Amino acid sequence: MRRGARTPAWRVGIPADAGRGEKEYGGGRLRCTQDGVCLGGFVSALLILALNAVLCSGCAHKTHSRRFAAPAAPAAVPAPKIGDTETGLASWYGHPYHGRAAANGEIYDMETMVAAHRTLPFNTWVRVVNVSNAKTVDVRIIDRGPFVDGRVIDLSHAAARAIELLGPGVGPVRLEVIRLPDAPEPAVFAVQVGAFRNRDNADRLRDAMALRYGAARVVLRQGNPDVWRVLVGAETTTDSANALAARIQAETGENNGFVVRLDSE
Predict the structure, then answer these.
(1) Which among 9, 100, 188, 216 could bridge 169 via Cys, Cβ 3.0 to 4.6 Å?
(2) Residue 176 in 3-state DSSP?
(3) Complete domains list, the chain, with CATH
(4) Is the preceding omega at residue 121 within 30 degrees of 0, hence cis?
């Protein structure tokens, strides 16, 4: 799968012979095996965790109940405000997502000023400043991503061209919220723990995560190939979602989970 231009934004130097095949997804690389598992971040450790959870759910129920008591319900997350800022890396995406439905349901056109963000409400407008050259572009959030540590926004081809990000592919930016949607949906957040080409594998991991953490779902990300994302939790604040990610990290030894906003599917 190709995303973007001849100089891809997401190449990270994984040897060509590392695994049976590699696919690009959501601004980052997934290593996909022949059985339909796309390994990235948590997935290898969580597959072991999933097996252990299924095997041990009956024999250690009381221990799990004491160790993993449900936290108190957190307060509602404050809505983003005009003037809120964020810094990090930007990347961009084009084919094969061009012409496909974005996460908000509209068709992604890579030549319009749109972008993907993991947590901002859809139809939020953000000013993106390329800190390397001070060029700016205003984009509307319609999609979710990027799912790569350190990256804060995935720009359309047109938006990346406007701030001269096409060649480098990835670059440091500053984001500022400049316009809010009229009626954003209630904020609920989850932790993305894996992505699979094979729906059955995603379902197995979802079932094990639901058993251990109380809530999990599988969400389709259309592409080439389609990818099934496993999202854990349903938190009303980003702080509590980050705490859940930290808990999963402590229990699996992996640290590449991502807090994402849960949208109506």
Answers:
(1) 9
(2) strand
(3) 37-68+187-261 (3.30.70.1070), 85-179 (2.40.40.10)
(4) no
Question: d(Cα 215, Cα 20) in Å, to the nearest integer?
Answer: 32
Q: Are strands 189-196 and 22-25 parallel, antiparallel or unpaired?
A: unpaired
Give the strand pairing for 136-143 and 114-116: parallel
Residue 240: strand, helix, or coil: helix
**Phi, psi for residue 85 in degrees, rounded to 5:** -125, 160
DSSP annotation of 215 reads -
| Phi, psi for 154 (deg, rounded to 5) | -115, 115
Would you list the DSSP string of 21-81? -EEEETTEEEEE-TTSEEE-TTHHHHHHHHHHHHHHTTTTHHHHHHHTPPPPPPPPPPPP-
**pLDDT digit string, tens, across residues 83-124:** 999 999 999 999 989 999 899 889 999 999 999 999 999 999
Identify the bridge partners of residue 191 per DSSP, sorted by sequence position.
Answer: 232, 259
Predicted TM-score (pTM) of the model is 0.62
- What is the rounded CA–CA span in Å between residue 265 and residue 246? 26
